[in-house]
Specification:
581 residues; alpha/beta; Rossmann fold; seven-stranded parallel sheet; 40% helix; elongated; ATP binding; RNA-binding; Nucleotide-bd_a/b_plait_sf; ATP-dependent RNA helicase DeaD; hydrolase
Amino acid sequence: MSSDEALSFSELGLAPAILKVIDEVGYETPTPIQAQSIPPLLAGRDLLGQAQTGTGKTAAFSLPLLTRLKPELKYPQLLILTPTRELALQVAEAVQTYGRHLPGFQVLPVYGGQNMVQQLRQLQRGVQVVVGTPGRIKDHLNRSTLKLDRLTAVVIDEADEMLKMGFIDEVEEILSHAPADHQTALFSATMPQEVLKIARRHLKEPVEIRIKSRTSTVEQVTQRYWQVKGLHKLDALTRILEAEEIDGMIIFVRTKIATVELAEKLEARGFSSAPLNGDMTQVMREKTVERLKEGSLDIVVATDVAARGLDVKRISHVVNYDIPHDTESYVHRIGRTGRAGREGKAILFVAPREKRMLAAIERATRQPIKAMALPSRKEITNRRVGQFKEQVNATLESQDLEFFEELIDDIQTDYDIGHRRIAAALAFLLQKERPLQMQEDHFIQEEPVEQRSFSQRTERRSGEQATCYRLEVGRSHGIEPGNIVGALSNEGRIDSRSIGRINIFEHFCLVDLLTPLDPAQLKRIRDININQHPLLISLDTKGASQADTQRKTNRGKRIVGKGRSPAPKKTLPRNRSTKRS
């Protein structure tokens, strides 16, 4: 079965709770390894799969085995063995996401270097899935703190890496603790004899799947990545849009909702952008593509499926705003640029926990992806000044300015001001809505430059009392202070100078605002999303004294917010070599 034959995940027989998550995270069609693995694993068959990292293996075994899980039973039913703690954490996070709508579902990552007491406590509470490295799993078996006698399935992930790291004996011993009738799935990028011997000993009439990587080097595309840190991704993207010589661009995100949200945010910052996703009618999609082709639209924010087959010659840049789930998707994405012999550029945003996928992409494309530094304020200021000069020169060459020259003479006579000062005043007025000099607070800082306490800040505005607001997002949602400041100042249109102390807790945060919000502002901000979680802002009903007590024990960061004024509509800097006539 190919991925083309499996039109959607809904046809594969997965549980409704699993399909709900698939829709939420934006998976639209199964990858080849998923399309071929899910049916036999759902049927209870053993499976031997040969596939590279980055082909979608984790979902290929997690989705069907979670469907077969019984969440009401509070003991380990599924064991997933991985060679490294990094992979164990990555797989556990994915499994937790896939199973989040299963009632009472718990997954536990188990690896060396982690507090054993914490692992014991979670095991005693009851977990259905254990993801771990062979060494630490064996430790628990020796201590009798982990029971595998009621397992229904075992997954051995990256078996060839287990072999290289000397874990094969531990894997054999662990498998001996599982029930004789358990289901086994073994995945490996290569199939050395030692791995095949394990498969023959422990897999019963397995379904064999081999996925060949169809990816190859994209010769005409220069690839770079930016490691996500400090700056909000949207702010980093804005800097890139300001500084790069861009003709047309496709920005890839994972979900259909994200296409709309990001396109709207870019429009608000003055860039001509539109979404492209599977929820749009065919007529709407065709109209969007036609606008991109003819140049009335510069940026399309798309999902993988919506952009499939897209062929627009003027696309000079592809930005992977969200890293793809597999390497084939990455190659398909960057293949949208560098066409017809033209050079293309691909930029990949990579969070620290996504470095494994970056390495897999490098192997798949057979070339290194270079790290990039974001454009500095000076570079962006120089670009804006250059564009301004070109605009002035073009006006001088193309317009009849006699009336305005006489007007300048009149101003000089009436106010006794030199032409240079008058020209400077006019230039200031022209750039007032979009300053040529990039201000320090135009973007959230990579590192906080002010660490003054809230009381020190309020000394500058004596007589004003802070109002404490509660936001229903916290550390568990991956929230950092910069996210809060960016959302409130950029999307909530709150003056960044009125944002006081920010205290982030596990499931919520408290924000002090010098200027109380009116009902309209509260309504607008409630619907703002950070990391796909709504802020749901409300007045903190616990009161200032209790909030102060909470702050003393809070481990969240305290920063001074930086914001920006809404930008007017602007065009992308054009690549002169591909500029349209």
